[in-house]
Amino acid sequence: MTETTERSGGSIRRFHSSEADVRLACFPHAGGAASYFFQVSRQLSAVADVLAVQYPGRQERRKEPFIPDVTELADVLTAELRQWADRPLALFGHSMGALVAYEVARRLEQEGIKPVVLFASGRAAPSLSRDEGVHLRSDAGLLAKVRELGGTAGALLEDPDVVEMLMPAIRNDYRAVETYRHTPGPPLACPLVVFTGDADPQVTAAGAQAWDAFSTGGFELNTYSGGHFFLDAHAADVLGKIRSRLEG
User: PANTHER family this protein is in (predicted)?
Assistant: First the structure.
């Protein structure tokens, strides 16, 4: 496997070349970037061609305008991922990424492209989204929320220059998530696997279980100890479950 960042233009990044039979598209959390999935790509490259999604307005795309709407972002990403559907396609998203991945899965199925499986992590069911006004807070208030959840490389948030660089993307993404409203429609046909932390302040046990109504293809809920970024402590087990699904 090579370890080069391969770009296809637009949103898709490939950190490791893989000839695996299935592709796994990974969607980052609010304020996150494609690089969050580098280790996912490295560890799963034997079983999946990992496509890490880079939203506009961050890292090497920082000069591109943000997309402050989940459904509009899903429209753009679906059009790009359609080009990668020559192999079976699975989707994984954490937090905001779970919403985006879900909306992309809906669009793909409407076009006759059924994902192998949708992995939704760190997010309550789409119908339970609510606006807490976090995106309207001052920079200090928004930063306090990010620190509370423990995301976006905590130590980096102590560097004022880094915070200044990250803040526009974080604010944009919180706006996108908080203004999202689920549009009723048929449930997904693909299997749905949900991961959640038992101490996540954003996702109750009932909120995670509520995903069950969003697919007729089978539902599995995996609960771990930890908060919103439980993934960091349980990466081996989560990736093991993803690997098993993709191999199956």
Answer: S-ACYL FATTY ACID SYNTHASE THIOESTERASE, MEDIUM CHAIN, THIOESTERASE
